[in-house]
Write a structure and sequence with these properties.
268 residues; alpha/beta; Alpha/beta knot; 7-stranded parallel beta sheet
Length: 268
């Protein structure tokens, strides 16, 4: 016996019915953030040319840094001394069996710098991520400003690759730690966030005069860098009273060079 299905015709769309706008894009795409990592350390003392093992926790952290079996890395022992390059020789069920070949003293920044950089176009944020890591910045905050790449353009700028550039830059320069990468956020969100905490707040400005700075060196700095064209007038008004303008000489630098010319902390 055949079955018959009776369907009702779909009602025609009303000409007066208003279409709903698409939902707004989130201003904090968290898929692009990546946590920082403290220097690798083991609770025992290391001896040159004497094998030692890494536990699974340290192995996981090395994989996060994209360190493979044939690449060296830097580690700190119980005495607080850094050593490297360290090479992995054998992988066992208990972990990695490694061998230290020399003592080194990697430079450590004496200043905690948070770099809040507006998202630059043409994938130039890759270069910013690399060089900020090599210079010792501890935190990187991509800013969504009036003149920056908008939030819906992050995918085209390959924002998913930023964390990988940070990891590879840390590996290349033998940095013992990884800087934290925060999710892109608007300037308003950043100014209201807990990350906006420091002894000194500066924003690069090419349309004014630098405010005088204290003679004492700060321990923690928040540095804000705008995109091509700088911060808008409305944004500069928001920064007034919260950060001091800072002028890097009389020349106008390229947008990709501005954060690198200002974000280098002193080392010891």
């Amino acid at each position: 016996m055949s079955k018959v299905f009776v369907t009702e015709p779909m009602p025609a769309p009303s000409a007066n019915k208003k279409s709903h706008p698409p939902p707004p894009v989130s201003a904090a795409p968290t898929q692009y953030e990546s946590p920082g990592d403290d220097p690798l350390a083991i609770p025992s003392r290391l001896t040159l040319e004497k094998p030692f093992r890494l536990d699974r926790g340290l192995i996981k952290r090395l994989k996060h840094r994209e360190v493979n079996a044939k690449e060296a890395f830097t580690i700190r022992d119980a005495s607080g001394v850094y050593s490297g390059p360290v090479s992995r020789s054998v992988t066992t069920a208990a972990g990695w069996r490694c061998l230290m070949s020399e003592w080194i003293a990697p430079p450590r920044p004496t200043m905690d710098i948070t770099l809040a950089c507006a998202v630059l176009a043409r994938q130039r944020m890759h270069f910013v991520m690399q060089k900020a890591t090599e210079l010792g910045v501890l935190r990187i905050v991509p800013l969504l400003t009036d003149h920056s790449v908008p939030v819906d353009g992050l995918a085209q700028e390959q924002a998913h690759a930023w964390a990988g550039h940070i990891a590879r830059a840390a590996k290349q320069c033998r940095r013992a730690s990884l800087p934290g990468l925060l999710a892109p956020m608007t300037l308003d969100s950043f100014l209201e966030s807990k990350v906006f905490t420091a002894d000194r707040y500066l924003f690069l400005d090419d349309r004014g005069e630098s405010a005088p700075l204290e003679a004492t060196a700060p321990k923690r700095i928040v540095l804000l860098v705008g995109p091509e064209g700088g911060f808008s007038d409305a944004e500069r008004a928001k920064l007034t009273g919260k950060a001091r303008p800072w002028v890097l000489g009389g020349r106008i630098l390229r947008a990709v060079k501005r954060p690198l010319s200002s974000a280098s902390p002193p080392f010891n």
